[in-house]
């Protein structure tokens, strides 16, 4: 038997599995999905868990039930590429592979800032988002929350917390001169106006020097606050960073056009772990997962795979609470209720695989 192992049951990994199952697995191939949780978590919605506006069950779905899939629910310690094995933190069992898909996602990048890893909350995993939600939910009246980072994640966390708690004092630290620097100026202005109307303080040109238990020091000024949430950048999962493969300047693994590692063509890397001209996103991971499934469908049958089509992303969507939003769809900037409804529709589709 040949063993195909998928590390990570997120947007990319699950697309690989579903694509292979739809096309039919060869009888001599076993499919194993490895994930830290016994369910698929919808990471793009973790900001709602941090704000306490939805229940956990609303942002996770059951993994596919199929006799052809084996599941291992454990934390990966390392990938032993010399022996083609997966080693885990919490179980002694090892899983061997003939083909491996690495879709482990990302984790916070603290950029070496002292105290950031110890004294900030995170929205990068389900358990960390829960912890952040508990910290925010337990704040007393008029508590202070600082969100470090004004990219898409920081914007959604800040606006959702405002919708959840009108009493809280919310501060957003933005490294640039405008929020959402990668977006159209119209969107930047719309979001800035939303924050102004909803009493969310935004400090531009932020330079966080260190973080303490009860505050953040920025540009020589220390702001006392109760909860600090970090959304100021990500990096590939630690397990991926430790692999002995060529990486780009962002520590992502360089892959060929078939998503294979050139040094180990039986290893495929997708999503936040793979070097790409596109910014990391759930949409990108999903498309790469679908294309990798098509490649593997041929490889497993000893056929020459076709060159995947050029990836064209449909756009990016963000929320400002439950009834407002923004986004770029087909290269057109949009604001208001329409992009928010579209984002809800995408979530509905993702929950139904």
Mean pLDDT: 95
How much of the residues is beta strand, in percent?
25-35%
Characterize the largest beta sheet: strand count, sense, and whether it forms a barrel. Answer: 6 strands, mixed
Envelope shape? globular
Looking across the biggest beta sheet, what order are the strands in? Answer: 5-2-1-9-20-19
Secondary structure tally, helices: 9
What does this 3D model show about the protein?
This protein is 28% helix and 27% strand. The protein is built from 9 helices and 23 strands.
Task: Characterize this entry briefly.
With 353 residues, this protein is α/β, with parallel strands linked by helices. It has helices at residues 11-23, 46-51, 116-119, 126-137, 152-164, 185-197, 238-241, 282-299, 337-351; strands at residues 2-7, 29-35, 40-41, 60-61, 69-73, 76-80, 85-88, 95-96, 99-102, 106-108, 144-148, 169-173, 200-203, 208-212, 215-218, 221-224, 227-230, 234-236, 260-261, 264-269, 315-319, 325-329, 332-335.
Which secondary structure elements does this structure contain, and how are they paired or packed?
Layout: E1 2-7, H1 11-23, E2 29-35, E3 40-41, H2 46-51, E4 60-61, E5 69-73, E6 76-80, E7 85-88, E8 95-96, E9 99-102, E10 106-108, H3 116-119, H4 126-137, E11 144-148, H5 152-164, E12 169-173, H6 185-197, E13 200-203, E14 208-212, E15 215-218, E16 221-224, E17 227-230, E18 234-236, H7 238-241, E19 260-261, E20 264-269, H8 282-299, E21 315-319, E22 325-329, E23 332-335, H9 337-351
